[in-house]
Design a protein that fits this description.
2 copies of one chain form a homodimer. Chain A is α/β, with parallel strands linked by helices. Chain A contains 10 helices and 10 strands. In chain A, the strands form 3 sheets. Chain A has a 5-stranded parallel β-sheet with strand order 5-4-6-7-10, with helices on both faces. In chain A, β8 and β9 form a beta hairpin. Chain A is globular. The interface between A and B is large, with 37 and 37 residues. β5 of chain A pairs antiparallel with β5 of chain B.
């Protein structure tokens, strides 16, 4: 069975659009994306985010800076966005050029405008089991997708492959919070195949085309593929070999059309939630 | 082979005492412990912390409050400590009485005086791979103990049993950062025995006497026992059955005399480091 991120995200986006439409205050939620340099993939991602925001009635702005922008200058620009009360949500599109220290820049964004949920205080709250208004979009999107298909992860053995700050570590915490037993694998893992063989749920987030094939998977498992890799042929594929994996898995996300659309939907949900919090509206926890 | 926390912590404490002795500035490091109520175990722990601080030349104060203290009042007292420039390090002894929300209180302590490393911003930095000056004492003590015995965890399969904010989750991150492949187990884990059987390193932090016995362990593994449980007989024992486990393990921590003394040593190290940071002295990272 396909875990369809397109269909699921569409329903979510409709809900968000309705909530935005219902807002009676003077302001609509406003999202600002900051893009440094001209990475072609980043251009596509940011453009998609802006487009979806538009469709929902969320105000959006793209602030562009040249590739040679200095860290200090970028931070000053973020400070301005922090102080601008018309801006509810700020994201810095990653990756940043080499002369800029990513973590330092991300810490400049006010935690209450941190729409990607990457600020240490928001990450720390996630670790402590306190739900911040904005959760990291990709792992939160995975949890929403599992929820949409009524997949209860409690008691499952889960394997997360990839230990990034953006996906691997936060999804590990989210799954643990929901009572899964999680093994966090990475490039130094010696027995990935053995772990995969005993895993009821696999989250692949490495960024390597077809690293995981069906023969290493447990029959009836759930496969969530976060990877988006472009083959020499131009085709987009995940970290999992879809064709062989679908033979073994009970549920599997396609690439594209799985986790990707969920990530964007969560970004919109986060924008709305940050707007609500800033308007003094209490938002409901949904994850923890 | 015994991982001797007593011997290892003694060497560490000597180093710290020397560093404190060498300080030429106007002030010595000062640690304030806050104790609410009269939990007998807490009384013992706090008294030991104060005594060790004294022996090292670290100034210490115990601030006591009655069991019926209200959260708002406790927070005000913490705010005073935040503002008191003579205080470098503040800890709130856990557990707190039921009327008090632990996480909210811990967040009141300034991150730069948070000697237990429990503030969300410090926890978040740990997650992001940025080393805060004060790391959570028990997991940091475990890493120091492993380091003292030159145990390299890179590539090992590790099993952490217990997902607390104080031990389980942070040690999971620390071990991952050092390239171990970690499985985080807990009360909802279905196949704990199978995980233990394939684990090169086991960290037991559940608080249940003798939950893990030798027959579930892999031969030649490393066992770190964080539990301190009192049997009806009055004897203190860990979460691991020491006698059967030592037959299988290559390295094992005793209870008492293993992780406990390391935890106190790390508290002292954290106090010194926070003092140094507040004096504008750059401290060296050691963990990440």
């Amino acid at each position: 069975m396909i875990l369809d991120g397109k269909v699921t995200s569409k329903a979510l986006l409709q809900e968000i659009a309705q909530e935005v439409g219902r807002l009676t205050g003077p302001t609509k939620p406003k999202l600002v994306a900051v893009l440094v340099g001209e990475n072609p993939a980043s251009e596509i991602y940011v453009a998609r985010k802006m487009k979806v925001a538009d469709e929902l009635g969320i105000l959006s702005e793209l602030h562009r800076f040249p590739a040679h922008t200095e860290e200090a200058f970028l931070k000053e620009e973020l400070e301005k966005l922090n102080q601008d009360t018309s801006v509810n949500a700020v994201l810095v599109q990653l990756p940043l050029p080499k002369q800029i220290h990513t973590e330092r820049v991300l810490q400049t964004i006010l935690p209450e405008k941190d729409v990607d949920g990457f600020h240490p205080i928001n990450m720390g709250q996630l670790l402590l089991g306190i739900e911040p208004p904005a959760l990291p979009c990709t792992p939160a999107g995975i949890m929403k997708l599992l929820d949409a298909y009524k997949i209860d992860v409690s008691g499952l053995n889960a394997c997360v492959v990839g230990r990034s700050n953006i996906v691997g570590k936060p999804i590990m915490l989210m799954l643990t919070q929901r009572n899964a037993t999680v093994t966090l694998c990475h490039s130094k893992t010696r027995n990935l195949e053995a772990v995969l063989e005993s895993s009821d749920l696999v989250v692949a987030a490495i960024g390597q085309a077809h690293l995981i094939s069906g023969n290493t998977l447990k029959r009836g498992c759930i496969v969530v593929d976060v990877g988006i890799n472009r083959l020499p042929s131009g085709q987009l594929v995940g970290d999992v070999d879809f064709e062989s994996a679908r033979e073994k898995a009970a549920f599997i996300t396609p690439v594209p059309g799985g986790v990707g659309p969920m990530t964007i939907a969560m970004l919109m949900m986060n924008t709305l939630r940050l707007h609500q919090v800033q308007q003094g509206i209490q938002v409901k926890n949904w994850l923890l």
